[in-house]
Amino acid sequence: MDIAAFYHSEIFKFVLLPVLIFLARICDVTLDTLRIIYVGRGMKFLAPVIGFVEVMIWLVAITQIFKNLSSPVCYVAYAGGFAMGNLIGILIEEKMAIGTVVIRIITQKDAETLIRCLKENRYGVTYVDAQGAMGQVKIIFTIVKRKNIDSVLGIVRDCNPLAFYTIEDVRSVRKGVFPLFKAAGKGTGPAADG
After folding, report:
1. Band of residue 174 on the pLDDT scale cut at 50, 70, 90
2. Contact 163/106 with Cβ under 8 angstroms?
């Protein structure tokens, strides 16, 4: 069987082509999700490169859809690839944990233990006394790498399980106290980014 005959065969149209469209959409939507995240984080050189590759893959996929307008299987593959690409893009971004966040903790309970624990774990801490709806509160700010969110939240839950907290992305950071964890025989200590 030659290539032209295989291209027009039922196996190609109803099995292989939808699988290729599905995989192409997964790739392009995953890249799109990552590109949007990188744009939001100010990564101005990486985002355009990802965008270029993303659009090239999309063009290949959409061309095949237009060549096979009578195939509902291709439509389902296109939509399914879109949905799966979103999920995979988010999962990859979570695993990469690129960027920095500010964790804002509001507590009515005495916050000294929580502040001490954060400092002992070498997280930079800024705190202020404030007035909340239910009375006096302390607002604690710490800026951490995304990969350290679970560690900080573990400390918060251990020291004050009822504390209210929010987490927001930070576009850029200049100087600060960030923990250095043991890596390949190196010690720990605070570091100033700058």
Report:
1. low
2. yes
Q: Taking a C-beta distance cutoff of 8 angstroms, is the pair 75, 18 a contact? A: no
pLDDT above 70 (res 175): no
Q: Which residue did the predictor score with more confidence, 193 or 131?
A: 131
Whole-number Å distance between alpha carbons of 26 and 29: 5
Contact 105, 114 (CB under 8 A): yes
Locus of tokens 């096979």: 68
Inform me whether the pLDDT recorded for 12 exceeds 90.
no
Give the integer Cα–Cα distance in Å for 160 and 140: 12
For the 100-170 domain, the top CATH level (class) is alpha beta
Where do the domains of the chain lie?
A: 8-96, 100-170
Q: pTM higher than 0.85, yes or no? A: no
Q: How far is CA 47 from CA 41, 103, 173, in A?
A: 10, 26, 19
